[in-house]
Amino acid sequence: MMRKLTLVIVVLLAATGGPTALGASGVAVNPGDLSFGRVATGDSPTQQEKMTNGSGADAVIAIDTGSNGAFSIVNDGCTGTLADGQTCTFGVQYNPSSTGSDSSTLTVDKGAAGTDTFGLSGTGVANRFIFSNQPGNPDFGNVAVGDTSGSKQITITNNTDYPDNPNVHLGGADPGQFSESDDCTSNVANSCTAMVSFQPTSQGGKSANLLIDSDSFQFTGTGMTQFDVSPLSLSFGTQRVNTASAAQPITFTNHRNNTANVTVSNGNPADYNVDDSNCAGGVPAGQSCSVNVVFQPNATGSQPGTVTVQGQDVSLSGTGTLPGASVSPGSIGFGNQPVSTSSAIRTITVTNNGNENLVFSQATLTGANPAQFTLSDTCFAASPLAPGDQCTMSVQFFPTSVGSASAVVQVNDNAPGPPQTVNVSGTGTPSAVVFKPSPVRFKRPHHAGTFSTPRTLTLTNKTNGPITISKVGLAGQNPNSFRITGGNCPGATLPADGSCNETVRFAPNEVGVKAASLTVSDSGANSPHALALTGISTYPKDDVAVHGAAGCDATKITFRRGGSSSRFDRTVIVRSRTHIPTGPNDGTRRPHGAGVLHDRELDHFAAYEYRVFALYRSHTRPGTLNHSRGVVLRLRTGEICTPMDGGVISDRTPTVSWLKHSTLFGYSFLIFHAGDQVQQKRSVHATSFTLSGRRRLHHGFTYTLFLYAYPPAHPEGTSIGRTTFRVR
User: Fold this and answer.
1) Cβ-proximal residues to 615 (8 Å cutoff; 6+ apart), any chain
2) CATH number of the domain where residue 387 is located
3) pTM (2 decimals)?
4) Could you read off the pLDDT of 487-512 as tens digits, one per residue?
């Protein structure tokens, strides 16, 4: 914006000779036109004008500044009378109050001789000095504490047309973290240069402003640690004693701008091996190296350690492990045992008392008479055995000759040291009775209430003289599950090596594993003698083709007898609302016809648990019944009454019926077969509809019908029920 100020200088000439006495030279103003150039707002430079009176007469000078603008008269030495031939001076001062161009006119009035005018001009600018050639990135980035970054250069340019001092210095938040040097003097006419560098004394983000006159430029940087050590902890987990783990690295990073020599110390050399060869010779600026640590424990348990890298501690942790094995008891004495008979079972307990899994190979019998002992090793099957856990081995003495016998049970595992051993011993004595076979196992499972085929057992007198058998009977846990059905042993006198026979059958009446003993009382030593009997009893057959269907207030169950056993008595169906029935008397028995149950007047939208049991007359305990495991059905009543969900019908034109439901526009349904819609949507206002005519169904097809209503909450329609059924 151009601003104008008119300065009016009135020169009055006083002479006795009148106007012509002024002379030819008149009054001169020098230099006349004035240009102040670029001036910072707030500054007020002054330029001088000189007046010379060569008019031949005295001149009365009057200076009028006009309005109060950017230009003004200062140091006025001309106001008043200027004698002929004399000179005077006055100053014109320019004081811009805002940026932009200003102009004014200096006017000299010479009376009758006319008026001289001179131009005044100047431009206001905001700052004396400005920054130019600024660095593209004023951020120094990461610089290690104690280091000095490279310098960033910036040019300071004089924005006016007169020399001045830019007064370059640092300010802002962290001036002490930066340094500045420049070639700026107190009298810069054009430009000068400043260099700024970052030299942090602490970590974190820093900033400072380079200040000149009334302008600033911000520099930033981040102080960071001189060195980085990562991670600060290493965990090696478990490691077997005297074995080496995989190496784990510790990374050292040099953030300084010169090479760093890395010092490494190991606080636990007994359990940790430290390799710092990668860091030897120093780490260049900005580079990294690795210190590798290997855990090799020399004892069990927690083994902490510390590696110190360039003064930074890195904690180490690991646990040394070893399996350990202890056996109990250390020895077993079986005492006297008749030849050709088995002793009672004795148990060896093996405990893992280490802190690592114990791995077994097959245990063995060694020593003088291993053939006279039997070993059952369940520890091998239990391998690996966790720390603190136990397993067992079973040992029996089965002498084959009279006299002392011994052996060694050797437990073979991965525990350090020699194998664990248990000494076993016993004495074979003249035997009284030997059973063959021994023991007796009825291997094939039998239905409860039935007899197994007979098993014939031979009893042999192994003494040196005759023995008389007084009694043969059943004892043990389940004696009623077995029957002695024949034999000639009771009352018999058997000579040495003489034999008799007994016949035994498995006759369970309950389900499960059954065990008993055949006991023989005789006149020989160690009477009575026992022979172990075992067998497995199972449920008799369930009914077959058991099928359930549910409507809105009724269910239907169909079934067929399984098998053709003459023991079959009847079918019982039990119902419960709270749980699955466990037996024929656990719930409500429902009366039914041949092969079908119609259970009516049920609650709507309710779940019912059914179990279908087949009952059989017991042969082993006459007058009692055995029941099958039972077939479980869970049926739930729903919205649709017919056809029942899950049902089988023979009518190709069934009536679909359902419970009344809140609806605005009646009901509709869709019918699908094999995933495809087979009939168009049908809308009705009643609660039933007969599928006739073109809507009749096909034999052998399974259909799913979806029922919809249009209640106020869902006037667009919502599904309220579905039923899936098959047409025979």
Assistant:
1) 568, 569, 570, 571, 572, 584, 625, 626, 627, 628
2) 2.60.40.10
3) 0.46
4) 999 999 999 889 999 999 999 999 99
